Fold Tyr recombinase domain-containing protein.
Amino acid sequence: DLTPVIRYLRALGNNKSMSVTNLTKKLCWLLATCGFLRPDDLRCTDARASRIIKGNLELMVLFPKETRQGQKIIKPVVIYPHPDEALCPVKAFIEYRSRTQAGDRAIAHPKDPSRLYTPLIRYVRDKTAATGTDRISNHIKEIMQLVPRNQDEPPFKARAVGATQALLKGVPVDDVMVHGNWSSPMIVDSFYRVSRSLASSFTKVVLS
């Protein structure tokens, strides 16, 4: 149930008047949830290679965890806008870049020092400094704590919550698999599905 999160994001107010701390947390959570991205993916996202195309956000993740035939890859991730600005990852990205772009500088990629890139997520107090995976993870966790769960359950991952919400809303598992760059539906079901409830009510179908 993402209702508490949605309520929180709306309470933050307009992107332009939002503190950079809250904007950073909001952006990290929206990208992780809507893009099925790990904190490490966000750390490896190249700000200058990412762009808005026809209203959609295309992120370029350099050298994610996934590989192809043992080789590092560049993973493009397309994220669509939301009509509600409070929930729109594209508008949050645009505002975040307007505040951090002046601090852009190319640095060595953490997974390949020979490759330069411009990290997307920056430290709140230093717009020229890249933020590490742990801090990005903490940004996401602060919002994920609002998602209700049983006391004996570990905190949910934004990537898993995003995939689960998509499945519950009827998005085909093949589409979820492609968006998350997963190799098979079994991986989605085993590792990234928080709930096994289905969007369709078979009881209503059978007994109607």
Residues 191-208 have pLDDT under 50 and may be disordered. The beta strands are 51-53, 56-68, 71-79, 107-109, 112-117, 122-123, 126-130. The longest helix spans residues 20-35. The two ends are 27 Å apart (CA to CA).
